[in-house]
Amino acid sequence: MIAVGLTGGIGAGKSTVSSLLAGHGAVVIDADVLAREAVEHGRPAWAEVRRRFGDSVVREDGSIDRQALAGVVFSDESARRDLNAIVHPEVARAMGERLALEASTDHVVVLDIPLLAEGGRDRYPLDGVLVVDCPVDLAIDRLVAARGMDRADAERRVAAQAPREVRLKLADFVILNMGTLEELRLMVDHAWRWIETLKLKGET
What we know:
The protein is 58% helix and 13% strand. The chain has a domain at 2-26 and 107-198: Rossmann fold (3-Layer(aba) Sandwich), CATH 3.40.50. It has 204 residues and is an alpha/beta fold. It has ten helices and five strands. The relative contact order is 0.21. Strands 2-3-1-4-5 form a five-stranded parallel β-sheet, sandwiched between helices. The protein is globular, with a radius of gyration of 17 Å.
C-alpha cells in the first residue's frame, strides 16, 4: 500500500483533484465524508454537538444542520475549536480503521484531509503529501462564484484555515491550480507519475 495525504485550502480545487486521482485507480478516504458520518443522528459525536451547540443546529428529523453549524463556528473561533475537539478524534479513528483495511494491499490510498496542516502529517503513516494550491484571492473568487457564498463568509472560511505557506511546507508535491480543468487534469497525471515513483521506492 502507498498512502498519500491530499490537502489544500478551501477553494483550491482539492475535491476535483481527489476525483481525478480516483479515476487513476486510487482508493480515496475522504475526511469530510467521515466527519459527516461522525455526526449522524444517534452517534456519540452527534450528542456532543447537540449538547455544545443546542437545538438550533439540529433539523426536525434530528440530523445536524451543517449550514447552521458552519454559521456558528466560522464566526466564533472558540466554537470552532470545540467542534474540532468533538469531531476530529472520531474522524481520525475512522480513517485509521479504513486505512488498516488497505494495509495488506498494493493500492494507492489517498487520504483526503482538508485540515492536514492543522492536525499534522505525523498522525498518519504517509508516504507523501500532495498539496493543491492557489492564491487566496482566487480561492475566495471561486467560493463566491461556484458555491454562492457571500464574500465576507468566504473570507472568514479561508482565514479560519492554516496559512497557505504552512500547507506548502508539508508538500512533497504541489499542484498549482490556477487554470482550466484540462490543465488541472494534466497536472494530476503528472502527480500520478510521482505517486508511482513512491511505489517503486516501496518495492526496493
